[in-house]
Every structure is written in structure tokens, then in C-alpha cells.
Sequence to fold (212 residues):
Amino acid sequence: MSALAVTALAGPMIKITDLHQRFGLHEVLKGIHLEVAPREVVSIIGPSGSGKSTLLQCVNRLQHVHRGHIWIEDEDILAKGVDVNRLCRKVGMVFQHFNLFENKTALDNVILAPVKLGLAAKVAAWPRNLSGGQKQCVAIARALAMNPDVMKDLARGSRTMMVVTHEMGFACEVSHRMLFMDDGVVVEDAPPEQFFNRPQSPRTKAFLEKIL
Ligand SMILES: Nc1ncnc2c1ncn2[C@@H]1O[C@H](COP(=O)(O)OP(=O)(O)OP(=O)(O)O)[C@@H](O)[C@H]1O
Ligand SMILES: [Mg+2]
Fold:
């Protein structure tokens, strides 16, 4: 492996600097700085309206960002000319409220996302005719359909994850780091053990006391 490749692998998978986002005059993100290492699982908690979903939407390029930078694997994803479709295949989004389609069966809900992302032509295909990524997609959908615990396996696996959740038990179990967001900033950033037992900020303490 070349020295360059080693350097690239050693860098963060996601890097966010001075991210600001507002809706009209309402500033929702007020300067987010964050690095997520490859394979790291970072869970974000915080009160309603603190900007958690907005932050993830910025990372997915679902929001127009007013100020700041986001790099994914050294690619400036806010730069002009970035292929958003390619980015969407690289950066998945699992919603905090699961956003199930009420008029679809559980199975239909599971297959809809992969179908939209290009598996539509492959629904009747045999595994031997699928690419590695397509097989993985089918396997994840099948596993999710059978056993929600697979989320934990996924989170412990090879993927870098930013998770917004209200499930503290889940977050504590799968996360390498916990973030507390309040009023558009990251107030606390610590490993789960420290985060839940010895939070530094009074705002984190108050929030945890309220919800636990
Ligand atoms: N499209 C939008 N237009 C205007 N304001 C918005 C829009 N999306 C979000 N907001 C506002 O931005 C703020 C942050 O919203 P966001 O959804 O990021 O919060 P959150 O931390 O995810 O909250 P929750 O825990 O309730 O999901 C809120 O005050 C919300 O009303
Ligand atoms: Mg939200």
C-alpha cells in the first residue's frame, strides 16, 4: 500500500467545519465542527428543534448550506458539480422516525429504498447475477425484515454512521461517541460511558436527567 493510501485511510470519513444553516432569519445550525473516523458510529441526541435532522440533511445534501464545509472521504460535497446521485448511493439516511409508508406492507417498505436506488430491474434476478453491492443490499433488506437486532450488527460493522436517535439503550450499546446538540451547536461529545455517567455540560446533565 502506498504512503498516500495510508494517509487517506487515516483521515476522517466525515469532516464538518463551521457549518451554518438557517431557514429565513431562523439560524438552526450555528457553527458545527465535527469529525467522524472511518467505521466510527456517532449518535446524536438533543431536544426537539436543536438541529439534529437538519445536520444530517446537510450531510446528505438535502439542504442548501449557508456557510461551512463538509468533506466525505476528502471530497468536498458542497462543491459545485458534485454528483448528488452518486453521493446518495454512498451516504445512506435512516430516519429517526422510521418514515414507513402507511399504505405499504412491511415487505414493500423494506424493498422500496433499494428499488428506488436502482435494484428495480433486479427484483427477479438470481444472486449469481447480482453485483457485490446489490447482493449486500438484498441481504441487508432480508436481515432487517427478519431481525431488527441486525441494526446493531450493522452499526458494529464496517460502516461509518451518524445516527439520530431517541433510543438511549441502543445508542449507548452501538456508539463509539455520543453527541448532545442543543440550539444549533454540539454541546457535548464523549464516549457513551463518560457521556451518560459524567457529562461535562450542565445542559447535557439537565437533558439526560429529564429523559432518563
Ligand atoms: N424546512 C424548514 N423550514 C423552516 N424551518 C425548518 C425547516 N426544517 C426545520 N426547521 C426548523 O429548524 C429547527 C431544527 O429542526 P430539526 O428538524 O433539525 O430539529 P431536530 O433536532 O431534528 O428535532 P426533532 O428531535 O423534533 O426531530 C426547528 O426549529 C425547525 O422548526
Ligand atoms: Mg429531527
Residues 44 and 160 are 14 Å apart (CA to CA). The first helix runs from residue 3 to 10. The beta strands are 14-23, 26-36, 41-45, 67-72, 75-76, 161-164, 177-182, 185-190.
